[in-house]
Structures are given as structure tokens and as C-alpha cells.
Specification:
This protein is α+β, with helices and mostly antiparallel strands and 104 residues long. It has 2 domains: 2-48, no CATH class; 71-101, no CATH class. The protein is 40% helix and 12% strand. It is built from 3 helices and 4 strands. The protein has helices at 35-48, 71-84, 88-101; strands at residues 2-5, 10-12, 26-28, 31-32. The protein has a 4-stranded antiparallel beta sheet, with no helix packed on it. α2 packs across α3. It is extended.
Length: 104
């Protein structure tokens, strides 16, 4: 898929990367793509292919945790998760589990 970047150039997208569409200027089909717009496109594609979308549930009951991180730490988390091929949430769960398993 080709996308138009804010500087007028185009780029071929062959994989999905973590891009903050509310801060990066990316055009899709002639319109600026935002996070909300990307979610709408994804829902539309999923509906056309008979899928509900969303992530599969975890195998066990879960609860939510809100967390604020310094920007630099968040960037390190994002990079490590990307390199590992997992979500930031999964990496954070694994790190917390490892820490607590050490008897903390």
C-alpha cells in the first residue's frame, strides 16, 4: 500500500509499525490519517472480511492498571517490545512477573 507523507513524498508500506498518527503527518487516500481514522479503516476492513477485530482475550481474568512513565523510559519500552515482536503491555506484564518472581 502506498501512503503520502506530509512532505509530499510517498512511501510503500509493507508492514505495520508503531506510528503516532496524531503527531506524524501521514495521508491515506488523500486525507490526513489520525489514530481514530486508522481505527475506523481497520474496523471497515475487518467487517468486510467477517472479523470483529480487536485483540484476543488473555487466558485468565484481568484487571487494568494505569501507568505514567517518563518519556525516555516509555521509548525504551516501545523499542524493546518492537524488537521482541510483542506489545508494550505484554513486555510490561513479563517484566513485572519476572520482578515479582525474584521475591520482591
Amino acid at each position: 500500500m502506498q501512503i503520502q507523507l506530509g512532505d509530499g513524498t510517498t512511501a510503500e508500506i509493507t508492514s505495520i509499525e508503531n506510528i503516532d498518527l496524531d503527531n506524524e503527518v501521514v495521508y491515506f487516500e488523500g486525507e490526513r490519517l489520525t489514530e481514530a481514522g486508522a481505527e475506523a479503516v481497520a474496523r471497515d476492513i475487518a467487517a468486510r472480511h467477517g472479523r470483529k477485530g480487536g485483540r484476543p482475550p488473555l487466558a485468565e481474568e484481568t484487571s487494568r492498571l494505569g501507568l505514567r512513565l517518563p518519556r525516555e523510559l516509555h521509548e525504551r519500552l516501545r523499542a524493546a517490545a518492537h524488537q521482541a515482536g510483542i506489545s508494550e503491555s505484554e513486555l510490561a506484564r513479563e517484566a513485572i512477573d519476572d520482578y515479582l518472581a525474584k521475591g520482591a
